[in-house]
Design a protein that fits this description.
Layout lengths: L12 H17 L2 E5 L8 E6 L5 E8 L10 H17 L12 E5 L2 E7 L4 E2 L11 H18 L5 E3 L4 H20 L2 H5 L2 E4 L2 E4 L1 H10 L11 E3 L11 E7 L2 E6 L11 H21 L1 E4 L8 E6 L5 H15 L14 H22 L1 H4 L10 H26 L4 H5 L5
Parallel strand pairs: 8-14
Antiparallel strand pairs: 1-2, 2-3, 3-5, 4-5, 6-11, 7-10, 8-9, 11-12, 13-14
Helix pairs in contact: 4-6, 4-9, 7-8, 7-9, 7-11, 9-11
C-alpha cells in the first residue's frame, strides 16, 4: 500500500511567514529541525526537533489564515493549549498517557508550542497491512478508552439539554457550507438530489434544516449526559502507541479539540469510527470519483483509491459492539439509550465537516506547480460525497424507525 502525503509549498505568503517563524523559534530553542511531519489533518506545521541536550521535541505552529473554519483557526489552536492545561491540572491521573506541553509562544497572528517527542505509531497501524491484526487494534483501543474513561471522562457528569445534535452538528454544517460551495464541483452542492453509489440522497442543508425544524426526530437520540472534556477530536492519529509494558500497549494521547466545557463522549467515539470508515485511508490513498463520463451528472460513485483497508472495515463493523461491551465505556452511557444512533448520525456529520476542513487551508496546501500528491479538492470531495451518503441513510432510518441500525448503516461501506 502506498502512503500519499500533501506537501506544503514554501512560497505561498503563509508558507513564507511560517518559515520565518520556524527559523526564529528554532534559533530561540537552539534546536535543529530533523523532520517535518506532513501526515495529519491539521493546517498547523509540525516539526521534529533535535535539542541541544540530544533529546527530541515536536514544535507545532499555527498562523492565522483568513477563512479557516472553526477548529482550524488560530483561536481554536489557542484553546487547545488551555485544554491541555486543564486536563493536566484537573485530571492528573491522565498525565501518564496524555501529551505534555513544554513551552508556548505567541504573536498577534500566530501561536506555537513544543511537546516531547514520543517514538510511536498510530493506534490503527496494526490494521493497515496486508495481514491486519484486528485484535491488537482492539487491545490498543481498550487501553486508550479505559484510561480516558477512568481518569478523565468520569471525573465530571452533568445533565444535557435536548438539541445538542442540532446545535453541534447541523449548525456546524450550515456554518461551513459556504466553503464547500466555493470550491467543490457545483453539481455536488447545488442540486437538490445527488445519487451517491447508487443511493438517492437529499441535499445536506435540507437534512440540517429538517433536524432543526423537527426536534422530535433526535430528541431520543440527543445526549442525556455530558462528561469531563478529556479530548473532543479522538481520530486515530491522535492516539499514539509508544511501546509495551507488562504485555499491554502504552499510549500517548495528543491534540485535543479545544474545548473547556462538559462534552459528549459519543462525539469522540464517532471520530474513531470516521477514521476507520473514510478519513485515515482517504488521506493516505485519496479517492476514486466517477461521474460516468458526465461531470454534470447528479450520479456519482466514490471510494478510497485501492479500496478501504480490510482491517479498517472489520474494525469499523465491530466498533459499536466493542463500546457496548466495554467495562468502562458502557457505564458512561447506561442512561443514554440513544447513544448508538447518535454515534452513527454524528459519523455522517463528521465526514461533511471534514470536507470543509480539507478546504479551509486550501491556499496553503494547493500549488499551481503540481506540488501536491493529493488534491485538497479530491480529499474534500471524497469526504463530502461519502458524508452525504452516510447522513442520508442515518436520517432516513431515524425517520422510518426512530433509531439507526449499526449493521445496515455500515453496510454502506460495501456499496
Amino acid at each position: 500500500m502506498t502512503t500519499a502525503t500533501v506537501r506544503i509549498p514554501e512560497q505561498t505568503s503563509i508558507g513564507i511567514r511560517e518559515n520565518e517563524l520556524i527559523e526564529e523559534l528554532t534559533s530561540e530553542l537552539r534546536a535543529n529541525v530533523e523532520e517535518e511531519v506532513t501526515e495529519g489533518g491539521s493546517p498547523a506545521r509540525l516539526l521534529r526537533l533535535l535539542m541541544p541536550d540530544g533529546s527530541r521535541q515536536v514544535l507545532k505552529l499555527q498562523v492565522e489564515m483568513p477563512g479557516a473554519v472553526d477548529g482550524h483557526d488560530l483561536e481554536s489552536f489557542r484553546v487547545k493549549l488551555r485544554q491541555i492545561d486543564k486536563i493536566r491540572a484537573d485530571a492528573p491521573a491522565l498525565r501518564e498517557v496524555y501529551t505534555d506541553k513544554l513551552r508556548e509562544f505567541h504573536g498577534h497572528d500566530w501561536s506555537a508550542y513544543t511537546m516531547p517527542y514520543y517514538p510511536n505509531e498510530d493506534i490503527a497501524a496494526s490494521i493497515r497491512g496486508e495481514d491486519p491484526r484486528v485484535e491488537e487494534f482492539f487491545d490498543r483501543f481498550d487501553v486508550t478508552m479505559t484510561a480516558l474513561a477512568e481518569r478523565g471522562w468520569s471525573l465530571e457528569e452533568s445533565r444535557s439539554e435536548p438539541g445538542q445534535i442540532s446545535e453541534i452538528h447541523a449548525d456546524r454544517l450550515t456554518r461551513r457550507f459556504w466553503l464547500l460551495e466555493k470550491h467543490l464541483p457545483s453539481q455536488y452542492t447545488s442540486q437538490e438530489r445527488l445519487v451517491v453509489n447508487g443511493v438517492p440522497c437529499r441535499h445536506p442543508l435540507e437534512i440540517a434544516k429538517l433536524l432543526s425544524e423537527r426536534p422530535e426526530l433526535t430528541r431520543h437520540v440527543d445526549a442525556t449526559r455530558l462528561h469531563f472534556p478529556a479530548h473532543g477530536d479522538l481520530n486515530t492519529r491522535n492516539v499514539l502507541i509508544t511501546g509495551e509494558r507488562d504485555g499491554r500497549p502504552t499510549v500517548r494521547i495528543i491534540d485535543p479539540r479545544g474545548t473547556l466545557q462538559p462534552w459528549d463522549i459519543v462525539y469522540d467515539w464517532g471520530k474513531v469510527l470516521f477514521s476507520l470508515t473514510v478519513w485515515d485511508a482517504g488521506l493516505r490513498e485519496g479517492f476514486q470519483i466517477d461521474t460516468a463520463g458526465d461531470p454534470s451528472s447528479p450520479e456519482v460513485s466514490v471510494h478510497q483509491r485501492g479500496g478501504l483497508y480490510p482491517g479498517y472495515r472489520t474494525a469499523a463493523q465491530r466498533l459499536v459492539g466493542a463500546i457496548a461491551q466495554h467495562a468502562h465505556l458502557a457505564p458512561l452511557v447506561a442512561d443514554d439509550p440513544g447513544w448508538r444512533s447518535r454515534l452513527l448520525l454524528g459519523h455522517g456529520f463528521h465526514l461533511l465537516a471534514e470536507a470543509a476542513c480539507r478546504l479551509s487551508d486550501i491556499k496553503k496546501r494547493a500549488s499551481s506547480a503540481g506540488d501536491v500528491d493529493l488534491s485538497p479538492i479530491e480529499l474534500a470531495s471524497g469526504h463530502y460525497l461519502l458524508g452525504v451518503l452516510f447522513l442520508e441513510n442515518a436520517v432516513a432510518q431515524l425517520e422510518d424507525r426512530g433509531e439507526i441500525d449499526p449493521v445496515s448503516h455500515l453496510a454502506l461501506l460495501d456499496l
